């Protein structure tokens, strides 16, 4: 755990240069706008520890699979989010000496990500040879208004000498992925062009035997220069090299004068533009933003972020660490996915790193969806569901590759295009619970938005594919006289190839029941669909019902807890406190030792109790929580948030708060020693859930929204806004009262501490309700 980021309600502040933590800070200060994003790298050359990262949404490469021993059913490629053209680079020379913070002593350093405004800023004084000192002040953002563009203002002041500043802003397409299976490069140059103060570089992903889409990305830039804030004449010399274009500018400056370079850049992908128009469109785009100018673009950025914060901010009073944590999580989610494009999804690292290939995981449905449901337009969550609907055929092919038939669908654990990309057998073949999360998301979407028709429109087609898979994946055990599910991996990846993972079995049955009810309710509306997919109503539903009625759930009658899997009690039952070595165990222990231990990576049985809380009484949830939580090492970022929600419900306030800090500050404090790889974007939505479903106790019961809020002792108050069935309400929890406000044009009703509250339309009427003790 690290503790060098200053606590502040709105900013991520590195005060003083922590060169050894630079890759961590680069992750923490990442920028994005849904279409493109980048790590908080330096503009100028840096020879110290760094992971240069620029990413364009939806642009990937199918890297050849690499395994020790091939197994039938493995996918041929592992898609990789592509590290793309570096558009932020500015080579800086002062009297011929390169500015490089890896070499020059630096003082008065700060790197600040202002989350309120969406702007990254750096200031420092660097010492060069002969005692020369320069001050640098840079500002940069990925525009959320012009979402294929970014802008930089890079200002240099010579502090104690007159001299020559040479600036070479460039576009560098000669980029390698950190995450690549064979160390190959994935980009070819297509064309480049330079003009006065402008440069363009178009790259295309290399040809591939896998017949996936190839992508062209055209990056363009235009520069401008000022001296002490006034426009200045300058010469721009074009520089061209392989996969590289730049404009070289020289200017003489006196001590105390500020030279500012403005760099306007765009990244246009063939995903969004006709390939033959990329260069022309990039030129027009660059022209437009350069005309707007930095000040105007920045003002628009600040205004647009203010609008976003107005919708989704969670204000926490009296606890800067907690406030910074939640805002950081919300900010990064907003930078990653805007929901405007149903071809895009949310990679576990977003635009902040390459781990996990940038692909789609069950994280989206199980963790991210609730955030977007409650803070964004309905279309955003709907697009996430449509994404999976579009992949249904591939999910059916994926299941067929594994030997399933008759329209059974197994969604991939990891995917870009709907095809499975992951090739560890225990995950690819066994971590099938992901199918259930996709079904659960449909249920969650409908209960939150009230869009019942979605089932008939798209939902049932997906659900039937999933239900057919479960019906074939279980088998009848004549020994147990029950259905069993063998050879699976549950959410707890520290167990593989187990039989009867409680969570998976329970989820499978729930899917079958939900699908069955859906078909019964919408039978006439979906009759064409049922015909199209050869649905044998009598036979298939009878089989499903039999499974629903006869599934085996491992259970310990003595402790009265569900068992994570058959045989779980054979393990030596220790608690995390018994681990004397340094953690995380996944970085210290052999895999063999991990598998034999009882230690749990992330919520597993508890994931099921969280999803299906209404099916269990509080005592059952408490017994299971008390049994499993002490064995849980929370080495998946997805773990703490589920524990906050359950702990809050059980009244375990200390535990809930401890887990809240862990989820909300996971990256800020580098709990799992892996922030340098990138941020844990998908678990950030879990942080949001921790507050809203945890401390504020938000639930949807029988179609009614309800809250049961409490105030953590460490806070003086908190407030948030929720969109529910198109209406917007605000809840403020204070020590002695809960205030609720209606921001919509219609009356709203919801429950607080089991009292029905009705608020008139159009108003900021406030009700005072006593806080639950
Ligand atoms: C977790 C998975 C998760 C993946 C991507 C893994 O460490 O165990 O549940 O889907 O990370 O976030």
What is the gist of this entry?
With 773 residues, the chain is of the alpha+beta class.
Keywords:
773 residues; alpha+beta; 5-stranded antiparallel β-sheet; 33 strands; 31% helix; binds beta-D-glucopyranose; 6hp_glycosidase-like_sf; Glycoside hydrolase family 65 protein; carbohydrate binding
Assembly classification: single chain
Cα separation of the termini: 33 Å
Mean pLDDT: 96
* Class computed from helices, strands and strand pairing: alpha+beta
As for the CATH topology of the domain at 5-312, it is: Beta-galactosidase, Chain A, domain 5
Work out the helicity level: 25-40%
What's the β-strand tally? 33
Task: Round the Cα radius of gyration to an integer and report it.
Answer: 27 Å
- The CATH architecture of the domain at 5-312 is Distorted Sandwich
CATH superfamily label of the domain at 5-312: Glycoside hydrolase, family 65, N-terminal domain
Unreliable spans: none
